[in-house]
């Protein structure tokens, strides 16, 4: 057996760190400024416990761009380093000074420290031919030192002159990275990664401003206590995040310190139309440092339509802080966010129902999506999910709908039949016929309602959904036996043969029934199951199931008791008789939006001919 230590050669590892440590080269600015923030926060901690003496002065970070000399300098007034500390923290790759500090001063604001891996400094070499460090420690009598390295394992360390405590890191930008010598480019990177860091950051370009302002908000709303904030504060912060968006519906302030640390504000945006829905609008921060806007592992899928900020030092990140690593905390945070959102929606529903109903057009998407994908959310959402009546005048929870409708709308199997419309205008005649029988029709017309209906039926196992035009009104709850018809058997046979039509793209079934004389002469209905399958297939795009390419199934119910058929059957002109019955069928198809193209043109032409005669 042989044992030993794995040897790491700096000649090999340095180019790897330099070239492949981070996927985006602009990360270097975030990493170096994060280190400057850590140096400042550490000094504050040491001052608070008496280890750092004297006045702290103005604690700030400066980013200076010198286009002529092709340098970027990041300066802080933090705790600085001695020569020994430079040897320890800079010359040892992957030795984390932040981790050491947290372990030494546990319980002393360690959550404000950003660094974890001891590698961020080396991101400077992704964009630099040479890096210099000028640093002076806060310790009494400490001598300032200068460190220099050109990206090889060789470095130089010497005493230097520096009056102020803190560290200046000077990057000599290489030819491949000259894009970072542009003021607008640096400003955009700073605004992306550093806009909410807790130490003021000043950017100094060509123009020296008389009264420069920090580029960051050091006290964003999510780090403050909810009790300190007004509605205006929350709305102003939303405008800061999304300057061109409308005022949000409402927000949820996350503030958890056990069993994990989590802060943030999630906003429910207004959603006017389905195609405006956008994901990836939630930003993830770790101790106020921007990490990513891809938060699908942390935020439940159904809440990806929300907007806002989540900040947690307990979310496990990889070295580049760009991707989440699997960890139990991620699942815990995900579950907590789900619970927090459900509780907030329930609270608004109970305390401000009118306001809740007014926002249902937008809220319904979140609620329905959550009910489909998360059973724990479904359990709570059953209390505040709403059905809106077809005319929009009234809202019902499932239990309220059941109480109002089950007397007339319970079928032979004992299931509550929920009658719905997907288009109140087009399906108006069917809605009116159903309402005339005392039925309650609700509106389910959003992008996700087809999926919602299919998933809720097995979850609400005592409920069945029927679209209001899926059958004649008498059959919407249970199939009814035929009533008597005034036509004799020969007339019935002849009438049914006259309706033997085969419009292209449609699979037509004709049935003859004895309905009320006041009912329409022909009703076109689309059987619930096949229409649902086609709707679902259409949503899945070009690669949808074979249902998408199947012809629409339509049932033409001919009302043999309608008086117009006495006239049709009495007509001696066979051609006119055929035109009359075809027009009656086309009128029914037109009510379902199934008469198009040449068929619609033929209908118009035929109608004109009938009027002439």
Give me the secondary-structure topology.
Blueprint: H1 10-20, H2 27-48, E1 61-66, E2 71-76, H3 83-89, H4 97-104, E3 128-136, E4 145-149, E5 155-159, E6 166-173, H5 183-193, E7 201-204, H6 231-241, E8 250-256, E9 262-268, E10 282-286, E11 289-292, E12 307-311, H7 328-351, H8 353-358, H9 360-373, H10 375-381, E13 387-389, E14 395-396, H11 398-405, E15 416-421, H12 428-436, E16 441-443, H13 449-459, E17 463-467, H14 489-498, E18 506-513, E19 522-525, H15 528-539, E20 552-559, H16 564-570, H17 574-591, H18 597-612
Parallel strand pairs: 1-7, 10-12, 15-16, 15-17, 18-20
Antiparallel strand pairs: 1-2, 2-6, 3-4, 3-6, 4-5, 8-9, 9-12, 10-11, 13-14, 13-16, 19-20
In short:
Belongs to the heat shock protein 90 family. The chain is α+β, with helices and mostly antiparallel strands.
Describe this structure in words.
- InterPro entries: HATPase_C_sf (IPR036890), Heat_shock_protein_90_CS (IPR019805), HSP90_C (IPR037196), Hsp90_fam (IPR001404), Hsp90_N (IPR020575), Ribosomal_Su5_D2-typ_SF (IPR020568).
- It comes from Pseudobacter ginsenosidimutans.
- This is Chaperone protein HtpG.
- ATP binds at residues 31, 35, 76, 81, 96-97, 167, 321.
- With 613 residues, the chain is α+β, with helices and mostly antiparallel strands.
- The chain has four domains: 10-204, Heat Shock Protein 90; 221-355, Ribosomal Protein S5, domain 2; 386-475, Rossmann fold, CATH 3.40.50; 489-612, Four Helix Bundle (Hemerythrin (Met), subunit A) (Up-down Bundle).
- Helix content is 35%, strand content 18%.
- Strands 5-4-3-6-2-1-7 form a seven-stranded mixed beta sheet, with helices on one face. A five-stranded mixed beta sheet has the order 8-9-12-10-11, with helices on both faces.
- The longest helix has 24 residues, at 328-351.
- The chain starts with 9 loop residues before the first helix and ends with a helix.
């Amino acid at each position: 057996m042989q044992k030993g230590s794995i040897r790491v050669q700096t000649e090999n590892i340095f180019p790897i760190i330099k070239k492949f440590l981070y996927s985006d080269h602009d990360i270097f600015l975030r990493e170096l400024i994060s280190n400057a923030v850590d140096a400042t926060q550490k000094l504050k901690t040491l001052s608070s416990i008496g280890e750092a003496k004297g006045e702290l002065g103005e604690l700030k970070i400066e980013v200076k761009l010198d286009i002529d000399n092709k340098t970027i300098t990041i300066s802080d007034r933090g705790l600085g380093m001695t020569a020994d500390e430079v040897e320890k923290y800079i010359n040892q790759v992957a030795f984390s000074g932040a981790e050491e500090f947290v372990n030494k001063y546990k319980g002393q604001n360690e959550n404000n420290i950003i660094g974890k891996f001891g590698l961020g400094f080396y991101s400077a070499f992704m964009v630099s031919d040479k890096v210099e460090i000028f640093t002076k420690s806060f310790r009494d009598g400490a001598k300032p030192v200068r460190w220099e390295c050109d990206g090889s394992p060789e470095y130089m360390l010497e005493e230097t002159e520096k009056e102020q405590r803190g560290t200046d890191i000077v990057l000599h930008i290489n030819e491949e990275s000259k894009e970072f010598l542009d003021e607008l480019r640096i400003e955009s990177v700073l605004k992306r990664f550093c806009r909410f860091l807790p130490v003021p950051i000043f950017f100094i370009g060509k123009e020296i401003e008389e009264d420069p302002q920090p580029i960051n908000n050091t006290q964003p709303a999510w780090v403050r206590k909810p009790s300190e904030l007004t509605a205006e504060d929350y709305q102003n912060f939303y405008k800061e995040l999304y300057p061109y968006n409308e005022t949000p519906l409402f927000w949820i302030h996350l503030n958890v310190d056990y069993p994990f640390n989590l802060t943030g504000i999630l906003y429910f945006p207004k959603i006017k139309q389905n195609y405006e829905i956008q994901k990836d609008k939630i930003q993830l921060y770790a101790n106020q440092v921007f990490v990513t806007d891809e938060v699908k592992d942390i935020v439940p899928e159904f809440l990806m339509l929300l907007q806002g900020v989540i900040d947690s030092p307990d979310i496990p990140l990889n070295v580049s802080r760009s991707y989440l690593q699997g960890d139990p905390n991620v699942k815990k945070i995900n579950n907590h966010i789900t619970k927090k959102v459900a509780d907030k929606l329930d609270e608004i529903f109970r305390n401000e129902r009118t306001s809740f109903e007014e926002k249902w057009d937008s809220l319904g998407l979140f609620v329905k999506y959550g009910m489909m994908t998360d059973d724990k959310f479904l359990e709570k959402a059953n209390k505040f999910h709403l059905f809106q009546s077809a005319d929009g005048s009234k809202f019902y929870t499932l239990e309220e709908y059941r109480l109002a409708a089950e007397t007339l709308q319970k079928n032979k199997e004992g299931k509550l039949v929920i009658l719905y419309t997907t288009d109140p205008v087009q399906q108006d005649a069917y809605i009116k016929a159903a309402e005339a029988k005392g039925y309650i029709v609700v509106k389910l017309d959003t992008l996700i309602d087809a999926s919602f209906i299919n998933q809720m039926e097995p979850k609400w196992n005592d409920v069945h959904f029927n679209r209001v035009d899926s059958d004649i009104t008498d059959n919407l709850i249970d199939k009814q036996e035929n009533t008597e018809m005034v036509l004799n058997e020969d007339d019935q046979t002849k009438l049914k043969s006259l309706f033997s039509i085969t419009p292209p793209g449609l699979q037509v079934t004709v049935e003859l029934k004895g309905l009320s004389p006041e009912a329409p002469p022909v009703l076109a209905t689309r059987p619930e199951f096949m229409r649902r399958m086609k709707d679902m297939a259409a949503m899945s795009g070009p690669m949808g199931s074979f249902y998408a390419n199947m012809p629409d199934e339509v049932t033409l119910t001919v009302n043999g008791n309608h008086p117009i058929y006495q006239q049709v059957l009495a007509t001696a002109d066979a051609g006119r008789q055929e035109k009359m019955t075809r027009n009656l069928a086309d009128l029914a198809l037109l009510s379902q939006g199934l008469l198009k193209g040449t068929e619609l043109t033929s209908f118009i032409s035929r109608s004109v001919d009938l009027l002439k005669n």
